[in-house]
Amino acid sequence: MEWVDTYLLPAEGLACDAIDLYGARCGVLHTYRPESALSVAGDARPIFYQWRDGPPAACERDLPANALVVNVESLFQAVRAGAEKFAAAGRANREISERIAHHLGDLLCYVPR
User: Fold this and answer.
1) For the chain, what is the radius of gyration of the CA atoms?
2) Mind listing the pLDDT tens digit for each residue in 53-74?
3) Fewest CB atoms within 10 Å of the CB: 4, 13, 70, 100?
4) Residue 53 Cα distances to 60, 62, 69, angstroms
5) To the nearest 5 percent, what fractions of the chain are helix, strand and coil?
């Protein structure tokens, strides 16, 4: 959540907090649903995703009163911009660079040969 606050938010088109995004991550990862334990407890708002040119998020179900609708393209752009800011911080800050280097070998990535 610290990374989200530092590098991803505030982002244009995203009216959510780090805890909302973390709750959304938990919901998708653990239940494959928008709702999470954090949103059920009232600590985060559930996030429903909507494509810019797609149907509204509420077209197939009633959304909870506290639901956030996040545009997928806006979220993608925010993550991309956040990653670029983080990479720049890594180039400018030795401590961040060392943290990146320490974890680089553990990433689940495909590196073409």
Assistant:
1) 16
2) 999 999 988 999 999 999 999 9
3) 13
4) 16, 20, 14
5) 50, 5, 40
